Hints:
Elements: E1 6-12, E2 15-24, H1 26-35, E3 40-49, E4 52-61, E5 67-76, H2 81-98, E6 107-110, H3 111-117
Antiparallel strand pairs: 1-2, 1-6, 3-4, 4-5
Helix pairs in contact: 1-2
Amino acid sequence: MSDFTYTMFIDRCGQPGEIVARGVTSSRALVIALEHGGAGKAEVVHKDVGRLRYFAIGRRLAEDGSFECARHIAMPRSDDLPLDTELAMEAFEQVLLQHPHEFWDGRIVADEAFAGRHVH
Length: 120
């Protein structure tokens, strides 16, 4: 998506407590957020319905193999599934960056912003 990297952390009383990851891309951050806590593995599924292609992102639960959807999107279907998948992933990454609570209980900020706010 971009060359930016991010720091992922869990807040503890308004302060960053547990730093989960540093220097990760938005696509890697999405996987980390979905898999944090060990409940399952991140997965993207899709289905074509008429002229639309539906994508859902979530986790495949370790306990019973069921799919737990975190977010979904519908988009016009093209003849290029890899391109459609890339566009859907970019949309999911933007949701993570703007509304991280939709994927996990932590926060995500650009590495530079995190370093600048937490210099002692």
